[in-house]
User: Fold this.
Amino acid sequence: MIVCIAEKPSVARDIARILGATASHDGYMEGNGYQVTWTFGHLCELKEPNDYETNWRYWTLAALPMIPKRFGLKLIPDRGIEKQFDTIKRLYDNADEIVNCGDAGQEGELIQRWVMQMAHVKCPVKRLWISSMTDEAIKEGFRQLKEERQYESLYMAGLCRAIGDWLLGMNCTRLYTLKYRRERKQVLSIGRVQTPTLALIVRRDEEIANFKPEPYWVLSTVYRDTLFAATSGKFTSEEEGRQAFALIEGKPFVVTSVTKKPGREAPRQLYDLTSLQVDCNRKFGFSADTTLKLIQGLYEKKLTTYPRVDTQYLSDDIYPKCPKILNGVSQYYANGQKPYLQPIKDLAAISKKLPKSKRIFDTSKVTDHHAIIPTGQTPGMLSDMERKVYDLIARRFIAAFYPDCKFSTTTVLGKVEKVEFKATGKEILDPGWRAVYQSAADAQDDDDKDKKDEERTLPTFTKGESGPHKPTLTKKMTTPPKHYTEASLLRAMETAGKLVDDEELRAVMKENGIGRPSSRAGIIETLFKRHYIRRERKNLVATPTGIQLIHTIHEKLLTSVELTGQWEKKLRDIEHHKYDALTFINELKVQVSRIVYDVMHDNTPISIGLGDQPVVGAPCPKCHKGHIIKGKTAYGCSRWKEGCDYRHPF
Assistant:
């Protein structure tokens, strides 16, 4: 008997139907030589501290650091999980072969490997590895089952991640809670990814709070209803600006140069999970966690491919399947019409054969899974939120095969006395891939809208022409950096805190990003649950607790995005046979022991509260120079005489 195990009952039912295992039993399906069962996500977990040592049961500084000689597994204490595990073990004990049908990723591999270890599996194991849940993909996957040993390094990377999170999270959470908490039942949660992510938000808040606006003056002029800006840039003093203004006032404007330069804009790259979450947050206000749930649902409905990916490329073997996928997408009905039929028809008219661009198809850029694309299955009824996510993915996929957008950039240079001016205009000559979005304003990227504002067609200017103009000197103020939103925070996590707009450079920096694409949404949600951050409209801001926690932590390993990103890279290297798993764990044990020692010897009198209530003595969350004091009716800042107006009522 061949036993197949999936990660969810719904997935198991699809697999059982295809295999002909149609007889239902308690906890599994059977038929045609197969038994198909399932987990409920994780059934097992690493043992808790008290499972290793009796004195680790109690939260005491004397018990730290807690470093087990050998890590062990246990079932998650739940009656339903225990019952399902008993069913799985019984099936495994009588199996001739097992097929691991868990999600094709690091976490899916870890889930099933732990169950097999707990069940003491002895028979051969094969691996089903698929990127979509369509019937065709499942059938093809079973025709090409892999040997389980091919995924040993994937499992080792997942195991190292879990052990690393245990070592750092268990030890540092107890350490900081016992050392610095204010209330007895309070827990100060420390995490390998959540703490440096919190540090990003706290530091951005401090940059904004400490920012001092400075005035500057901009000289511009209007000639023939066109705004020209001075090429000398901004003036730091009004006097300097007025001198330049006086120099050009009443003098004729002379056009010195007119140039036209053709340009091309390639289609956007396909979606990975992070870029999809970013767009959904910017356009629809969806949280990262909401987007992940929506795209996971579309995947399980067989409408889109595997979502937890960090690549924006397709492997070469997907290319022959693309015409069929496009045909399926074209048949989708929404609001009584087929929104993708005309763009796909237009694509066929542009080119008889689909183009194969290296920006889209590059097997060397694909590891476990390719970019998120439609499967070609025609969607049925979708919720409004599901439709929005599907629409983004479908249009991005269709646009990928369209030609570049062609435009012409006109640059006009002018001069008044010695002051030079410049105006630019952009004219779309052939929309190319942008035509896919012209009939769907809600599907436009936000940066597309910004560019549309910049696009203007200039009047026809001739070199040497001159005439009157209207100069203006405008006073402006420098602006602070913006608060993080979920979209910009996801990008910062992906690129180790660096601001990167270039798509290719961003792809390179993913190597040192923090967290996995699938875990970043959960990390942000955890920060909310711990009352370390809160939302102010779309902005994410740190609470007093979050601020003081980051100010208390001096270990760079815990707060540095760069160092955590380097750690993440080692985990990826373990997966790709470039780094030793045992070395990683031993390094971490040394680092955790050092952190415990350093904090134990910290005699700074700090007491961290929980939630939004300010903590007396904590750094002022507004000026970050004074500290919080308690008044008669509200908390305030010790620098109130110096002008800090921070107030927080009781």
